[in-house]
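fwd from M.: "can u put these together and see what the complex looks like"

so here's what she sent:
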Amino acid sequence: MKRFILPLGVFVALLGFLWVGLRLNPREVPSPLIDKPAPAFALAQLHLPERQIGTRDMAGQVWILNVWASWCVACRQEHPVLMEMARMKLAPIVGLNYKDARDEGIANLQRAGDPYVVSAFDQDGRVGIDYGVYGVPETFVIDKRGVIRYKQIGILTPEIVTGTLVPLIAKLNQEGGNG
Amino acid sequence: MAKWIAAVLMSLALCAHADEDLDKRAAALEEELRCLVCQNQTIADSHAGLAADLRREVREQLAQGKSEQEVLDFMVQRYGDFVLYRPPVKRTTWLLWFGPLLLLVAGAALLVLRLRAGRSRAAGPQPSEEELQRARALLDNDKEQP
């Protein structure tokens, strides 16, 4: 009887590892950018190419950066959630139109509604690289001091919004701007 | 005139050589970086849009005179250690790096223990002189009988 205990123990341990391994999501790579200053950018706006939008324009307030593209199917799925967030006036949402065609991006927003206060046009995806973007849509919450406090890879769900974003943004709004 | 042509050809050859060198360095570095879209490919292998962008980034930065390590640091800053095909040795990866060694040592220790236990069991109590004589006598009897 005793000689079965060791193999059985090893087997159970292996089973435990496999069980945990199956439930991890390999797509969710922890971002090294959390609690780091949001990479500075200044890009042409999507709608008004002659005007710019960048991190400096958003300094001093809690804001949301949402990376999207007209070619991104999951973004369409996420879009109603963003519209709801805009209606709730949770925080200003800046769009980062990632590797898109300008006219298609604009047409998309005209058709489905525009949840963004403004969209930046990142045609060659360089700002995307600075933000470590690899799976559009991605969403960043940036605090008053310009520090990234949250990153969502993949679509936002109503559960994430009410369960995570609403309390987080309420907390960030109470923090000091320079503290 | 001939001098001019020679000079032009020379500089072209030098450029080509520098390009080749850069290509080699970039290709080597691209083999070290993981494409985050298709996670089991390097950015050299992947056809994903992001991989193409990152290849462009690697090439540009090397052309600007940055070192391999600087380019790797740039990628790690943005995408984390996961982007490296060879994970760095640090506290959180000790188990990853030294775990196999640990298993080997544990296995060897177990083997040694079991072998020792087996040997002492086989050795058992030594027969006394009397018993040996009896055994010899029995064996001798056996031989004489037929």
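replying to her w this: Helices of chain B lie at 2-30, 49-63, 68-79, 94-123, 129-144.
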